[in-house]
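Quick one:
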Amino acid sequence: MEALKVMQRRASLKSCLSDREINKGDLIQILEAARAAPSGRNNQPTRFVVVDDKAIIQRLAAESFSRGNAIAGEAPVLIFICANPKDSTDRGGESHFQFDAGLATENLLLAATDLGLATNIMTGFKEAEAKKILGIPEEVRVIAATPLACPKPSSYDEAAKGRLAERTRKSLAEIAFRNSWGNPVG
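Output:
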């Protein structure tokens, strides 16, 4: 599938998670796509903790995730996106580890979409609890997490149909300017 089509097709599907097992080859392909993301000075600060142990997933859902994100406990896989600020590009005292992690996360989400798998980026969790449960070092930040699941109903397109129908986006004139702020490109 072409990249632009995948971008238009991607939706957050946390209410459409089945507990069917994820193909290991698909998981590796998704992680390779995330690994291929650019980063400042190619420092590659992003790390991924893949959780497929059901007991650990349940513990994370109960002890770390917010009530609204506890549904992640239904997924067969959770992926935690992490980064060490010290491994990042520093410009004038500002670390860009979160930006780099965001680039890798988008690659991960788009690869999952291309493979027909459901994801939902989540930041509503207690970082300290997640770090404790997963043994993540103190200096490493947990940026986000996503469940990774086969969608229910049976196909990604069927599961995403409602979400995509209700999704809105600002107009290009509101977000893109030519030569100076406020002068729309379109």
